[in-house]
Structure formats: structure tokens, C-alpha cells
Amino acid sequence: MDTRTSTDVEERERELVITRIFDAPRHVVFRAWTEPDRVARWWGPQGFVTTYCDMDIRPGGTFRVCMRSPEGVATRDDHRRGWTSTLQRFAEYLAENQ
Hints:
4 helices; alpha+beta; globular; single chain
């Protein structure tokens, strides 16, 4: 008998799992992902500047970020340029902040 509820399925479908190995201590990686002032230093595509970052990392919390493009255009989170450059910026941040 399948005991899963539709809520269980919906929550699992919204789950985001990111796997990548970074050459940094776990506590540094955790703080870089969970402290807004640190997230603002590496978030977004290359050339973008994070102008606002607010987060509540508790279950059910929120994440809001605004950025400015190299052309000066303000935008909310824009992933059209891809995660590759964002994760590269994250790796560079970790290398500089260990």
C-alpha cells in the first residue's frame, strides 16, 4: 500500500539537490550559503552585482535576491545566464575566504 500523500510528492518535486565538491572546510561552505552578506559576494552570473539579499534558512523560509547587470539593469534573480558562472564565482569566493 502506498502511504505517500500528495503533499509528500509535491514537496519532493520541489526539492533542489546540488552536488559539487569544493576545496574548502564545511563550515566555510555552510556560512557562504547561509549568511546573506556572504551570499551577496558571490551570487549571480559573472559581472552581476548583488544589491539585495535576504534569507531565512529555516524550513519554509524565504530567499530574495536582487542584482544589477553589467549594463546597470536592476533585476530579480536571473538564471538565464546559467549556474556555471555562479558556481565558479562561489568556488573563487571560497578560495579567497578560507
